[in-house]
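This part of the workshop introduces the protein records we will be handling. As an example, a complete record with its sequence and its structure tokens follows.
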Amino acid sequence: MNVKGDTEMCKSLLLSSLTVLLAMCTVWGDSQYDRVPYDPETMSFPVTLAQAQGIARAWIGDPNLEFSESVEIYMPDYDLAEHSYCLRTADSPAQRFEVDCYSGEVKDWVDVGAQSSFYAVLDSENPPPKLPDNELLQICQTFCSQKYPAFVELNLESTGDFRFVRRLPNGVWDTGFIATAMTNDYTGTVWAYRAYRQGPLTISPDPAIDQATAEATALGYALEEPGINSAFVLGNEGVWVERDPAGVQRLAWVVQVVESEEENYTLAQYLEDLENLPAPYGYACWITVDAHTGEAIGNLGGYLGSGRCRKTKSALKVLSPTPRPIRGRAIRHTKLRMDVNGTEVDTSTSPLLISGQPYVYVRHLGLFGRSVQWKNGAVTIGGPEPVQLRPGSRAAKVGERTVKLAQPVRVLFGRAYVPLSAIKLVVGDGVRWEPESKTLHLRPGLTTGRTTRSRHLGD
């Protein structure tokens, strides 16, 4: 298998995914629960509502734009100093604006009609050819440079897709200044824009530790995770200025690492598994290492059932040709069939056969009306007696009791899979394994509602 590729293309692909993680909560992450109705009697800001509406009209170039009387204020719990007017035009389909209550900057804009048109074509049976990526990128760059104040002066550069982040003279990426746009891939129409900016740098942008030291620290941090027995460096995204919502800044190396609960896991096997498994979710994460002190800050990717580190096959095939050597053999999997109440279902998270035993994605237990919640590295399935499972462990906590499983819970490609013995703990007769046809039958209506009290459950 050839894993060599264009390193510059690799860097762009990695940076584009990383940008989403670094700014997820503040760029594209606004929740409806962070919004409250605007009350002119009790709320007063440097930018008035009338001024905000005028700014939105000028920004879009329509002096006659009319707005709905329903206005909300975006005020996230994590940053009480951040407030924005949430405006919606009176026409249908509407346009949505978010205007900063202090600076008057348009921070968010969505043309709902143009967005719907794009998704309608995208979901059609025979969509037309997409425009070339470089053409779409140029459209987004032109749009952002016109809408984002001081775009050129701040030196915002593309991270490999339609997000533009400030690039410092020494090559460090500063996440305090980001602009991004979304386009119709078939017409080139821009239908969304988002701007994010924080204050000037308060720390030195020059790293005190080198790349090799950062990667060694990241690997050590990865191997400290419970159940992780091997790891290797998949890529290095360079040095970033990270900023939390309070504005605290840290300079960090960001290292992409593949983790595995199995010993002897290699890059070639990782890529092979991505080809053969139904869902191309990489068992990968981004680990940040303080570029001044050398300490591991944390894991940006997550691997406990989150599925957040999604990578396309084409992206993975151009990654670094010289990953860190590790020990050699991966878990072998076979995709299984699954039916629910007699109807076969096709899902990207189909059951897997591992060492002769069927495993099911833990979220499928929701088919039985059970809640599935992750907390502190363990998953709890609700029911008369909640069942708590921990990746890599054969012990299941059932209510106040501990039950030993025949096989451990496994985390594969960013998702947690549970063995049949664990499923029976939750749903009893609601599951049946048919080895001849390699089919797992789920019968939500046959759930016994009782949890067996056996000390050791085999499949």
In short: Residues 7-11+205-316 form one domain. The first helix runs from residue 7 to 22. Residues 1-33, 278-282, 301-333, 447-459 have pLDDT under 50 and may be disordered. DSSP finds eight helices and 28 strands in the chain.
